[in-house]
Amino acid sequence: MHETDEQLEAERQLDLARAACAGDRAAFGQLFKLLYARIHRTVWGMLGDESEAHDVCQEAWIKAWKRRDRYNFESAFSTWIHRIAVNSALDALRKRKRLGQRFLRVFSGSSESGTLDMAADTARTPKEHLRDKELGKTIEQAVADLPEDQRTVLVLREYEGYSYEEIAQVVNCKIGTVMSRLHLARQKLQVRLKKELS
C-alpha cells in the first residue's frame, strides 16, 4: 500500500521534530518554513493586525525552540506549535485591553495588503461593493465581540479548517467543549447579524 502525501508529510515533520528536539537548528528551520504561514494566518485571524501577528508568531517560535525538550510527540508538532502560538495571541489580546479594533479580516476579505481580496469581480456595481464592504465590517465587529475562547475555536475551525480533535489539542480542552464553544459562537453571530442586517 502506497503512503499518501499527508502520511509522507507527517513522517517528514516527525523526523524533523526529532532532530530539532535534539538541538538541530537546521531541522527546526525546516519546520519553521513548513509551518510558519499557517501559524501566521491563525494568529492574524485572532489579532486582526498583520504586523502584530508577525511579532507574536516570532515569539511563539522562539518559545518553541526554548521549550523543545517539552515536546512529547503525543500530538503532531504542528499542533504543538499551534498551541503555543494561540496562547501567545491570547496573551497579546489580554495585554491590548481594547478588543474593539477591526480584526479577523479573513471573514470579510478586507485585508489592506490585498492578500484576501474577495472584491476583485469588476462586473459588480459600486453599490454591491459598498454593501459587501459594510457587511464585512459588520461581520468583523461581530466576531471581535465574541469571548476569546469562542473566537479562538471559530478561527481555527472556519478559517484554518482544523478538526474538532485538533482544536481540542490546540486549546487544551475536551472535544465536547470545542463543539459547545463553536456552537455558541455561531449562534451569537447569527443573532447579531440577523439583528443588524434586517
UniProtKB/TrEMBL annotation:
Stretch forming the signal peptide: none
Transmembrane segments: none
InterPro entries, per the entry: RNA_pol_sigma-70-like, RNA_pol_sigma-70_dom, RNA_pol_sigma70_r2, RNA_pol_sigma70_r4_t2, RNA_pol_sigma_r2, RNA_pol_sigma_r3/r4-like, WH-like_DNA-bd_sf
Stretches assigned to the RNA polymerase sigma factor 70 region 4 type domain: 139-189
CDD domains: Sigma70_r4
Keywords: DNA-binding, Sigma factor, Transcription, Transcription regulation
Pfam families given in the database record: Sigma70_r2 (PF04542), Sigma70_r4_2 (PF08281)
NCBIfam families the record matches: sigma70-ECF
Similarity annotation: Belongs to the sigma-70 factor family. ECF subfamily.
Protein name per the record: Sigma-70 family RNA polymerase sigma factor
Organism of derivation: Oceanipulchritudo coccoides
